[in-house]
Recover the amino acids of this structure.
């Protein structure tokens, strides 16, 4: 039984890690820390875990050494403290933004601060099983992509790798309120956020840089907060090289995702559920990817959706852990999502 | 043209007063204060007022003397500062809780602090046009009831006055998130509040005391936060004296509300809209009141609904102002609400 | 491996049965029927099951004999066809309303039609593991309670059995839109139902009869449709015999539910999650039960919540199946629910 | 007092016309027809109008001759019956799709049927006061644009007319459920539609053709149903000719909209309400238009929002009527919208 711990367990990503790890048959959740809530029972903060864990949050000085350590810590703090985190576990799985971008300049450009540990950046393997599974099997340092970034990377990489799209990609991302975390602020007030269509990043959202890095394509991304707690949906437009046919696009996705446990190709001609919708993915580790061709147009419209806290964060991190620790890749991640929901 | 001002205009009740007063043909909004946001443009805080006012919030030392002064100030502070407010206007209309309860002991019991100005309490006329219109015509001090209180008072008083109900009344109140105001806190986070059915006051909600005072009936009230920004719905159960027939109940409501501009009796046998629902009342000054009889039971179930910020607050206050200043009672309050919404 | 089938798999309760049974390690889903959608792939109707099943809905003439047969058929039809259903399986688990009420007259009274198979009614064991576990171990005919009924039965029975409450119980039930099933009608239109507080049964909701039967108490229930897809929350008021203390009430619940796998006692003094809220129960088989005492009042206010499609239907049915087939009672029902959600 | 009538008053657009016309001081609503609900009281169908009108829906054979006739009839039927409608009023204001597209081939292309009255098409003036006010003053036949089309036309035309943008415009439209009307169908079921991010038109939405026609730009539009009853938000990306500076863009909008009563330029550097959001526009006739520049990019991102039933339909139609009948343009359209909402 592998022993794992979570740093920063009182937030939403941290809570989702605790939900998945306490139900995971292959690991033992040994500790979860919270600076704010040290000593408080986990299920007092995450009421869905009532009856599932009797652990309380501990202070970091109580930490021991673990098989795997999950970091749900803020960016900036994470890169400053990474050396101490690395000393605490065989495998460190970082859910912060600090080690996602390979280029320190790009980091400084998008995050507005110089990177504090550029020499460490290249030692991290991207936490993207679909494209880095082999490296993840032996990786001791894993950096999990951002929620919208992962939705974009999984939507566009197969087409980019097959050379099927070229030129600038316009990405329209929609996200639920849990992406903002559980720190109260006017922007996150229910009365302000409920029913909102809030364009909070008309240009240059940070996840744009991750998608560009992974796909090698120039990406312009806009992010809008929509009425949902969980869920990310991405809509991307790109120009197709050569003939834009459904057959070519579908074949490119099939070739990459045919055997993937957590990516589904969803592109139907009719029905209520023709394209990916985060509505039915809450709690699940699936990323659904679909597309549409406009006959006579050189463009393809790609749509992807996931639960920002699961495949967009904690679930994806657990999938990486399973791969690294030699556990069945699906273990602890089988929940299918709900319909209706 | 009457000159009016609002103390505490940056909150939700304050903002609603500004929405109604800037559109009111009979008054001029001379000033609105905000301690937090003094100097900031009103439409920067309340974006729905873009193009409707160019005023900025002022500090209180900028205040002059007005025909009517609306107080959207916190309870406790309001009773402590009432003397200075009274000096600022011919008519003071208080939307805080401090002068609603005639008995200082009851206030202390429900609010947990002794009343700071008990001698002033009885000088306030209840801001309930349906039952105090005559006194309101000459009242210089008006205390507007709480949002759930008003829904309960309008639902139960006609039956109580007619002696149609007796014994304890069980009230189940449901309210939207705007009732909590715009101060950010974990309880009001969208991710926590969205879709919630939060029983935040299982017993002894403060508005219970107002309903009991107005109706003379023993009331037990439970309050639940539901998924809505605006809106209050009350469901009350009471025992009927004598025969519980639809005819007797309807007659009692008709007798009181037949000519009321802002109370509608809504009790149909079929259709989607048989009973009051706050869903169609957003922005309107209506309180809808309905009821149902259980054949063979001595009980009546009464249902009422209103917009907590309008008939449950700012709109009701403007209606009182219209009465007091000799303006048409409906003026500035004609919006019907939306369907669908 | 037990072979099970579902009659009426295209509805919401049917779909939830399919979600749980396809993920259940102890059973094989052998068939699911749909009159409307025979021949259509299950995951085309329930998109959350994409990749989890390749089955298509079959016509009933394709049915064989099964270890357990789940009926998600309409009431009336179910009682008329029960004999043929009984011939198809060793154990029949009925999720319709037809065999819930022991007294045919009560059925006729609440459902407006005479019961078609009164002689069969008493051969069904109530699908309420918390109170009928022993009988369920050998029951060949199981009738699962209604969603709001189960929330009420689990909330009130421990107090009734302990003789802690007496007299009429006033129940205020709130329910999400999935309870109405997936048959389109004006009442279920998103634009009409969204944000609604629709009192659709001010008196005499059918589930009232089930709660009265199970608790032996006179019950008056009101049902309101609230803004949610899943979820039922019940609020009940009753008079306490003798002294109404938190200690006595809590002890009564502890005595009954201490070892129950799917009932949690939720009654805290503070925090966001003091009382049961269906918001965090979507997809889980938990029923949370809480209560509040009003000091100096003889009343107790009881609050319970569950997911109407899980503990209020399909999940509860699977729990009954586990008991009857000798499988671990929790099997296939471990999902904890999500926070935030 | 002008006498007006509405054909097809039982739908959502029809109901919104009735809400605006019954509150309009300059006109008398003489009749409203409904084939489905002839004889039924208007306020039984549109409960927000309780107390505002005692009219019942009439059959069309009861119609007389009016100063203005509003058509809220289905497309196809409208073009087939237009001659009889034209005979019934001095001014016909059509809210259907049939006379929006100047080119019959384009109509056939997007609507899949040949146009039944091509000779009439060019006799209609576009119901877009911002760009056709002069012609509208004398127009006897007015065709009001589609909800998403109007949001796109108002967002893009000033930039197109100023020659500030060139090449293909990518439009991402989000819409609430009321846009689908009140005909019940599985797609509009609350349980299916609630919380959905449904890409129902990945390419070639019909309103795309209207925007292209009005702006002269090639437009590619995608439409997504989002969680809202009312509201449309459009996000458009275009390449800027010459230098893409905020100053040039803002100047182009100011030049066109400076004196427009119902278009507001909303583009702020900070705050919760930096860009247009339909959330605060429900019930109002405003279209808010904003934009963002990505420094160093040749692109501009334009955002617009409106209430699909008001500025996207009924309100815009009433504004056209005011212009045509010589009434004050703002009359009956002053509602500001709500915050919070």
């Amino acid at each position: 039984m592998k022993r794992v711990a979570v740093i920063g367990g009182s937030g939403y990503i941290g809570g989702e890690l605790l939900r998945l790890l306490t139900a995971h048959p292959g690991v033992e959740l040994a500790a979860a820390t919270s600076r704010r809530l040290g000593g408080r029972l986990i299920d007092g903060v995450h009421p869905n875990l009532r009856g599932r864990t009797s652990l309380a949050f501990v202070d970091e000085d109580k930490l021991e050494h673990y098989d795997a350590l999950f970091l749900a810590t803020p960016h900036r703090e994470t890169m400053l403290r990474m050396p101490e985190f690395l000393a605490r576990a065989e495998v460190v799985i970082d859910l912060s933004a600090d080690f996602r971008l390979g280029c320190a300049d790009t980091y400084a450009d998008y995050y507005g601060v110089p990177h504090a540990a550029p020499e460490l950046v290249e030692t991290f393997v991207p936490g993207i099983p679909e494209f880095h599974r082999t490296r993840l099997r032996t990786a001791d340092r894993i950096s999990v992509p951002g929620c919208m970034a992962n939705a974009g990377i999984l939507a566009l990489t197969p087409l980019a790798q097959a050379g099927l799209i070229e030129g600038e990609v316009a990405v329209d991302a929609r996200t639920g309120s849990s992406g903002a975390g559980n720190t109260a602020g006017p922007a996150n007030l229910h009365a302000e956020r409920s029913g909102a269509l809030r364009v909070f990043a008309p240009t240059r959202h940070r996840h744009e840089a991750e998608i560009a890095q992974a796909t090698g394509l120039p990406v312009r991304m806009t992010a809008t907060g929509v009425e949902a707690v969980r869920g990310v949906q991405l809509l991307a437009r790109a120009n197709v090289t050569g003939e834009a046919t459904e057959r070519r696009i579908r074949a490119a996705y099939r070739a990459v995702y045919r055997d993937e446990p957590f990516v589904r190709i969803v592109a139907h001609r009719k029905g209520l559920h023709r394209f990916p919708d985060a509505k039915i993915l809450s709690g699940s580790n699936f990323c659904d990817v679909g597309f549409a061709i406009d006959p006579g147009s050189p463009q393809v419209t790609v749509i992807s959706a996931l639960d920002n806290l699961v495949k967009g964060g904690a679930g994806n991190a657990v999938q990486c852990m399973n791969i690294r620790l030699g556990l069945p890749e699906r273990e602890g991640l089988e929940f299918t999502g709900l319909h209706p929901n």
